[in-house]
Amino acid sequence: MIGRLRGVVAEVxxxxxxxxxxxxxxxxxxxARTLSRLPAIGEEAVLHVExxxxxxxxxxxxxxxxRDDRKAYLALRAIQGVGPKAALSVLDxxxxxxxxxxxxxxxxxxxxxxQGVGPKxxxxIVTELKGKPLADLSAGGFHPTPLSPAAEPLRPSVAGEAVxxxxxxxxxxxxxxRVVEQAVIRLGExxxxxxxxxxxxxxxxx
Length: 206
Description:
Mean pLDDT is about 80; it is low at about 135-155. α7 (about 155-170) crosses α8 (about 175-185). This protein is an alpha+beta fold. β1 and β2 form a beta hairpin. The chain has a 5-stranded mixed barrel. It is built from 9 helices and 5 strands, in the order βββαββαααααααα.
């Protein structure tokens, strides 16, 4: 699963952005608020990513400029009837802290301003979010609890991101895992994903 992307903004569309990571272009679906705040084309951006799989659509990446936005997106998606598009629309009109405030006030009208969210769904959203501890929804509460290095090893996430990138280029999973493992051994566990992806591609070319 891809959890973060760091690369150059190559293109920005109405609903998605193309992020170039060491020559691999990732199409990332984003809300309007995120797209409007991306760096200019040609500049580097860091996106926190939620990876979702569908039988017909395959892998879809949803990108956010902060962990808070990604956590809020996941909280919204956990609510029945809230799909990806509706969740992004809610976050376009209500950033995480404002969403928490609206839920605390039972302000369904504020949530209903989101495109595609009717009164009934807005009421369900504020009801379900209000039932959670406010610290889980506030801007401060969305920061993950710090983990010790032993509890959050770097290598699996780096290797997983590199394998996913190679698979996106059509490399079979066994081959992708093999060359990524070799690249990580060669570069060390502290290597960044772009460097691992580049080294793995070089391994494939041998």
